[in-house]
Amino acid sequence: MNALPAWLNPQLLGPIAVGWGGRILAAIVIFLVGRWVSMALTAWIVKAVTKAGVEETLRRFFQSVIYMTFMVFVILTAVSALGVPTTNFLAIVGAAGLAVGLALKDSLANFSSGVMLVFFRPFRVGDYVEAGGVAGTVDAIGIFSTVIKTPDNRVITVPNGLIYGGTITNYSAEATRRIDLVIGVAYEDDVAQAKSLIAEVLKADDRVLADPPPTVMLLELGDSSVDIAVRPWVKSGDYWAVRGDVLERCKRSIEEHGLSIPFPQRDVHISPQAESAGRLRDVG
Protein backbone atom coordinates (compact mmCIF):
# COMPACT_ATOMS: atom_id res chain seq x y z
CA MET A 1 0.00 0.00 0.00
CA ASN A 2 2.87 2.36 0.74
CA ALA A 3 4.27 1.73 -2.79
CA LEU A 4 0.90 2.19 -4.53
CA PRO A 5 1.16 6.00 -4.86
CA ALA A 6 4.53 5.61 -6.52
CA TRP A 7 3.06 3.22 -9.11
CA LEU A 8 0.14 5.58 -9.74
CA ASN A 9 2.44 8.49 -10.40
CA PRO A 10 1.21 10.24 -13.61
CA GLN A 11 4.77 10.95 -14.66
CA LEU A 12 5.44 7.20 -14.62
CA LEU A 13 2.12 6.03 -16.09
CA GLY A 14 2.12 8.57 -18.90
CA PRO A 15 5.08 7.26 -20.89
CA ILE A 16 4.01 3.68 -20.24
CA ALA A 17 0.47 4.34 -21.48
CA VAL A 18 1.71 6.20 -24.54
CA GLY A 19 4.25 3.51 -25.34
CA TRP A 20 1.88 0.58 -24.95
CA GLY A 21 -0.94 2.49 -26.64
CA GLY A 22 1.19 2.99 -29.72
CA ARG A 23 2.26 -0.64 -29.71
CA ILE A 24 -1.29 -1.88 -29.32
CA LEU A 25 -2.50 0.42 -32.09
CA ALA A 26 0.32 -0.75 -34.35
CA ALA A 27 -0.46 -4.39 -33.59
CA ILE A 28 -4.16 -3.87 -34.37
CA VAL A 29 -3.35 -2.12 -37.65
CA ILE A 30 -0.89 -4.88 -38.62
CA PHE A 31 -3.46 -7.54 -37.78
CA LEU A 32 -6.31 -5.90 -39.72
CA VAL A 33 -4.21 -5.05 -42.77
CA GLY A 34 -2.48 -8.43 -42.70
CA ARG A 35 -5.82 -10.19 -42.48
CA TRP A 36 -7.13 -8.30 -45.50
CA VAL A 37 -3.96 -9.04 -47.49
CA SER A 38 -4.15 -12.72 -46.48
CA MET A 39 -7.74 -12.97 -47.68
CA ALA A 40 -6.88 -11.28 -50.98
CA LEU A 41 -3.84 -13.46 -51.65
CA THR A 42 -5.76 -16.61 -50.70
CA ALA A 43 -8.60 -15.69 -53.07
CA TRP A 44 -6.11 -15.06 -55.88
CA ILE A 45 -4.34 -18.37 -55.34
CA VAL A 46 -7.64 -20.28 -55.12
CA LYS A 47 -8.76 -18.65 -58.37
CA ALA A 48 -5.55 -19.78 -60.08
CA VAL A 49 -5.95 -23.30 -58.70
CA THR A 50 -9.57 -23.37 -59.90
CA LYS A 51 -8.48 -22.48 -63.43
CA ALA A 52 -5.97 -25.36 -63.24
CA GLY A 53 -8.89 -27.76 -62.77
CA VAL A 54 -8.28 -28.82 -59.16
CA GLU A 55 -11.25 -30.58 -57.60
CA GLU A 56 -13.56 -28.86 -55.12
CA THR A 57 -12.40 -30.92 -52.13
CA LEU A 58 -8.72 -30.15 -52.61
CA ARG A 59 -9.49 -26.55 -53.50
CA ARG A 60 -11.22 -25.95 -50.19
CA PHE A 61 -8.43 -27.67 -48.30
CA PHE A 62 -5.78 -25.56 -50.02
CA GLN A 63 -7.79 -22.44 -49.24
CA SER A 64 -7.85 -23.25 -45.53
CA VAL A 65 -4.16 -24.19 -45.36
CA ILE A 66 -3.00 -21.12 -47.30
CA TYR A 67 -5.14 -18.73 -45.27
CA MET A 68 -4.01 -20.20 -41.95
CA THR A 69 -0.37 -20.01 -43.03
CA PHE A 70 -0.69 -16.33 -43.89
CA MET A 71 -2.51 -15.61 -40.63
CA VAL A 72 0.24 -17.26 -38.56
CA PHE A 73 2.77 -14.82 -40.03
CA VAL A 74 0.39 -11.90 -39.48
CA ILE A 75 -0.17 -12.83 -35.83
CA LEU A 76 3.56 -13.27 -35.21
CA THR A 77 4.22 -9.86 -36.75
CA ALA A 78 1.51 -8.25 -34.62
CA VAL A 79 2.84 -9.87 -31.44
CA SER A 80 6.34 -8.70 -32.33
CA ALA A 81 5.00 -5.15 -32.70
CA LEU A 82 3.83 -5.31 -29.09
CA GLY A 83 7.41 -5.86 -28.04
CA VAL A 84 6.91 -9.49 -27.10
CA PRO A 85 9.91 -11.65 -28.16
CA THR A 86 8.78 -14.34 -30.61
CA THR A 87 11.98 -16.42 -30.68
CA ASN A 88 10.91 -18.70 -27.86
CA PHE A 89 7.43 -18.92 -29.29
CA LEU A 90 8.78 -19.98 -32.68
CA ALA A 91 10.97 -22.60 -31.00
CA ILE A 92 7.95 -24.04 -29.19
CA VAL A 93 5.89 -24.07 -32.39
CA GLY A 94 8.75 -25.74 -34.27
CA ALA A 95 9.14 -28.46 -31.63
CA ALA A 96 5.39 -29.05 -31.57
CA GLY A 97 5.34 -29.22 -35.37
CA LEU A 98 8.16 -31.77 -35.36
CA ALA A 99 6.35 -33.94 -32.84
CA VAL A 100 3.11 -33.77 -34.80
CA GLY A 101 4.95 -34.52 -38.03
CA LEU A 102 6.56 -37.65 -36.58
CA ALA A 103 3.22 -38.83 -35.20
CA LEU A 104 1.40 -38.24 -38.48
CA LYS A 105 4.15 -39.18 -40.92
CA ASP A 106 1.97 -41.69 -42.79
CA SER A 107 -0.88 -39.21 -43.12
CA LEU A 108 1.53 -36.50 -44.24
CA ALA A 109 3.00 -38.88 -46.81
CA ASN A 110 -0.48 -39.56 -48.17
CA PHE A 111 -1.20 -35.84 -48.20
CA SER A 112 1.99 -35.00 -50.09
CA SER A 113 1.24 -37.80 -52.56
CA GLY A 114 -2.24 -36.36 -53.03
CA VAL A 115 -0.74 -32.97 -53.82
CA MET A 116 1.56 -34.57 -56.40
CA LEU A 117 -1.39 -36.40 -57.97
CA VAL A 118 -3.28 -33.13 -58.26
CA PHE A 119 -0.46 -31.16 -59.84
CA PHE A 120 0.99 -33.84 -62.14
CA ARG A 121 -2.44 -35.34 -62.90
CA PRO A 122 -1.56 -38.86 -64.06
CA PHE A 123 -5.32 -39.51 -64.06
CA ARG A 124 -8.61 -37.71 -63.53
CA VAL A 125 -12.01 -38.56 -62.14
CA GLY A 126 -13.73 -40.94 -64.55
CA ASP A 127 -10.53 -42.53 -65.90
CA TYR A 128 -10.09 -46.29 -65.80
CA VAL A 129 -6.76 -46.93 -64.11
CA GLU A 130 -4.69 -49.63 -62.50
CA ALA A 131 -2.88 -48.24 -59.45
CA GLY A 132 -2.07 -49.31 -55.92
CA GLY A 133 -2.92 -52.92 -56.74
CA VAL A 134 -6.49 -51.97 -57.75
CA ALA A 135 -8.07 -51.63 -61.20
CA GLY A 136 -11.22 -49.59 -61.76
CA THR A 137 -12.74 -46.20 -62.49
CA VAL A 138 -11.56 -43.24 -60.43
CA ASP A 139 -14.56 -41.98 -58.46
CA ALA A 140 -12.90 -39.27 -56.34
CA ILE A 141 -9.43 -37.92 -55.58
CA GLY A 142 -9.29 -36.97 -51.91
CA ILE A 143 -6.74 -35.26 -49.73
CA PHE A 144 -5.33 -38.46 -48.25
CA SER A 145 -6.85 -41.20 -50.42
CA THR A 146 -8.39 -41.95 -53.81
CA VAL A 147 -11.70 -43.75 -54.28
CA ILE A 148 -11.75 -46.31 -57.11
CA LYS A 149 -14.88 -48.16 -58.23
CA THR A 150 -14.25 -51.62 -59.70
CA PRO A 151 -16.20 -53.04 -62.67
CA ASP A 152 -18.20 -55.25 -60.28
CA ASN A 153 -19.31 -52.09 -58.42
CA ARG A 154 -17.03 -52.36 -55.40
CA VAL A 155 -15.84 -49.07 -53.94
CA ILE A 156 -12.20 -49.24 -52.79
CA THR A 157 -10.38 -46.47 -50.94
CA VAL A 158 -6.65 -46.51 -51.68
CA PRO A 159 -4.14 -44.33 -49.78
CA ASN A 160 -2.50 -41.79 -52.06
CA GLY A 161 0.94 -42.91 -50.90
CA LEU A 162 0.41 -46.38 -52.37
CA ILE A 163 -0.82 -44.93 -55.66
CA TYR A 164 1.89 -42.34 -56.24
CA GLY A 165 4.64 -44.62 -54.94
CA GLY A 166 3.82 -47.37 -57.44
CA THR A 167 3.15 -47.83 -61.13
CA ILE A 168 0.07 -46.08 -62.54
CA THR A 169 -1.55 -47.40 -65.71
CA ASN A 170 -4.18 -45.09 -67.18
CA TYR A 171 -6.30 -46.86 -69.78
CA SER A 172 -8.37 -43.72 -70.50
CA ALA A 173 -5.53 -41.27 -71.07
CA GLU A 174 -5.73 -41.57 -74.86
CA ALA A 175 -8.79 -41.33 -77.08
CA THR A 176 -8.01 -44.61 -78.86
CA ARG A 177 -6.79 -48.05 -77.84
CA ARG A 178 -5.50 -51.08 -79.71
CA ILE A 179 -7.10 -54.48 -79.20
CA ASP A 180 -4.56 -57.32 -79.19
CA LEU A 181 -6.05 -60.68 -80.15
CA VAL A 182 -4.49 -63.99 -81.15
CA ILE A 183 -6.64 -66.34 -83.22
CA GLY A 184 -5.32 -69.79 -84.09
CA VAL A 185 -6.25 -72.01 -87.03
CA ALA A 186 -5.31 -75.58 -87.78
CA TYR A 187 -2.11 -76.38 -89.66
CA GLU A 188 -4.04 -77.96 -92.52
CA ASP A 189 -6.17 -74.83 -93.01
CA ASP A 190 -5.46 -72.07 -95.54
CA VAL A 191 -3.81 -69.27 -93.57
CA ALA A 192 -4.39 -66.69 -96.31
CA GLN A 193 -8.11 -67.49 -96.31
CA ALA A 194 -8.26 -67.20 -92.53
CA LYS A 195 -6.57 -63.80 -92.62
CA SER A 196 -8.97 -62.64 -95.32
CA LEU A 197 -12.00 -63.72 -93.28
CA ILE A 198 -10.72 -61.92 -90.20
CA ALA A 199 -10.04 -58.75 -92.22
CA GLU A 200 -13.61 -58.84 -93.56
CA VAL A 201 -14.97 -59.08 -90.02
CA LEU A 202 -12.95 -56.03 -88.98
CA LYS A 203 -14.00 -54.08 -92.07
CA ALA A 204 -17.67 -54.78 -91.43
CA ASP A 205 -17.52 -53.29 -87.91
CA ASP A 206 -18.01 -49.52 -88.02
CA ARG A 207 -16.42 -49.13 -84.59
CA VAL A 208 -13.05 -50.33 -85.87
CA LEU A 209 -11.03 -47.28 -86.90
CA ALA A 210 -9.61 -47.00 -90.39
CA ASP A 211 -6.73 -44.81 -89.23
CA PRO A 212 -4.54 -46.33 -87.99
CA PRO A 213 -5.52 -49.38 -90.03
CA PRO A 214 -6.02 -52.74 -88.31
CA THR A 215 -3.27 -55.32 -88.49
CA VAL A 216 -3.85 -58.97 -89.40
CA MET A 217 -0.61 -60.95 -89.67
CA LEU A 218 0.90 -64.34 -88.97
CA LEU A 219 2.28 -64.22 -85.45
CA GLU A 220 3.91 -67.61 -84.88
CA LEU A 221 3.66 -71.34 -85.48
CA GLY A 222 2.36 -72.64 -82.18
CA ASP A 223 2.37 -76.15 -80.75
CA SER A 224 -1.20 -76.88 -81.83
CA SER A 225 -2.16 -74.03 -84.18
CA VAL A 226 -1.02 -71.36 -86.59
CA ASP A 227 -1.47 -68.17 -84.58
CA ILE A 228 -2.69 -65.00 -86.31
CA ALA A 229 -2.30 -61.60 -84.61
CA VAL A 230 -5.39 -59.40 -84.90
CA ARG A 231 -4.85 -55.76 -83.83
CA PRO A 232 -7.64 -53.30 -84.58
CA TRP A 233 -7.79 -49.74 -83.21
CA VAL A 234 -10.97 -48.49 -81.54
CA LYS A 235 -12.15 -45.64 -79.35
CA SER A 236 -11.28 -46.20 -75.71
CA GLY A 237 -14.94 -46.38 -74.71
CA ASP A 238 -15.63 -49.14 -77.28
CA TYR A 239 -12.73 -51.37 -76.26
CA TRP A 240 -14.49 -54.21 -74.43
CA ALA A 241 -17.60 -54.26 -76.62
CA VAL A 242 -15.60 -54.44 -79.85
CA ARG A 243 -13.23 -57.02 -78.42
CA GLY A 244 -16.04 -59.42 -77.56
CA ASP A 245 -17.91 -58.88 -80.83
CA VAL A 246 -14.80 -59.33 -83.00
CA LEU A 247 -13.87 -62.58 -81.26
CA GLU A 248 -17.36 -63.99 -81.68
CA ARG A 249 -17.68 -62.98 -85.34
CA CYS A 250 -14.23 -64.26 -86.25
CA LYS A 251 -14.99 -67.65 -84.71
CA ARG A 252 -18.30 -67.86 -86.52
CA SER A 253 -16.85 -66.81 -89.89
CA ILE A 254 -13.92 -69.23 -89.64
CA GLU A 255 -16.20 -72.17 -88.81
CA GLU A 256 -18.74 -71.27 -91.50
CA HIS A 257 -16.04 -71.44 -94.18
CA GLY A 258 -14.81 -74.87 -93.15
CA LEU A 259 -11.80 -73.80 -91.14
CA SER A 260 -11.19 -74.82 -87.55
CA ILE A 261 -9.83 -73.31 -84.37
CA PRO A 262 -7.84 -76.12 -82.72
CA PHE A 263 -7.38 -76.63 -79.03
CA PRO A 264 -4.13 -77.82 -77.42
CA GLN A 265 -3.69 -81.57 -77.86
CA ARG A 266 -0.91 -84.12 -77.60
CA ASP A 267 -0.36 -87.32 -79.55
CA VAL A 268 0.94 -90.22 -77.43
CA HIS A 269 2.80 -93.02 -79.26
CA ILE A 270 3.31 -96.32 -77.41
CA SER A 271 6.23 -98.42 -78.56
CA PRO A 272 5.79 -102.27 -78.90
CA GLN A 273 8.32 -102.86 -76.09
CA ALA A 274 6.41 -100.66 -73.67
CA GLU A 275 3.14 -102.35 -74.63
CA SER A 276 4.63 -105.83 -74.02
CA ALA A 277 6.05 -104.73 -70.66
CA GLY A 278 2.65 -103.47 -69.66
CA ARG A 279 1.00 -106.81 -70.48
CA LEU A 280 3.62 -108.71 -68.45
CA ARG A 281 2.95 -106.55 -65.42
CA ASP A 282 -0.81 -107.15 -65.76
CA VAL A 283 -0.25 -110.96 -65.92
CA GLY A 284 2.08 -110.91 -62.90
Question: Features of this protein?
Answer:
284 residues; alpha+beta; SH3 type barrels; 5-stranded antiparallel beta sheet; 10 strands
Topology at a glance:
Blueprint: H1 4-7, H2 10-51, H3 56-81, H4 87-103, H5 105-120, E1 128-131, E2 134-141, E3 145-149, E4 155-159, H6 160-164, E5 169-170, E6 176-178, E7 181-185, H7 191-204, E8 215-221, E9 226-231, E10 233-235, H8 239-256, H9 272-283
Antiparallel strand pairs: 1-2, 1-5, 2-3, 3-4, 6-10, 7-9, 8-9
CATH class division of the largest domain: Mainly Alpha
Strand order of the largest sheet: 4-3-2-1-5
What does the oligomeric state look like here? Answer: single chain
Terminal residue distance: 128 Å
Given as residue ranges, the uncertain stretches (5+ residues, pLDDT < 50) are none
Largest sheet: 5 strands, antiparallel
What structural category characterises the helix and strand content?
Answer: alpha+beta
Order of helices and strands: HHHHHEEEEHEEEHEEEHH
**Count of the separate structural domains:** 3
- Output the number of helix runs: 9
* CATH architecture level-2 label of the largest domain: Orthogonal Bundle
- Rg on CA atoms, Å: 37 Å
Question: What gross morphology would you assign?
Answer: elongated
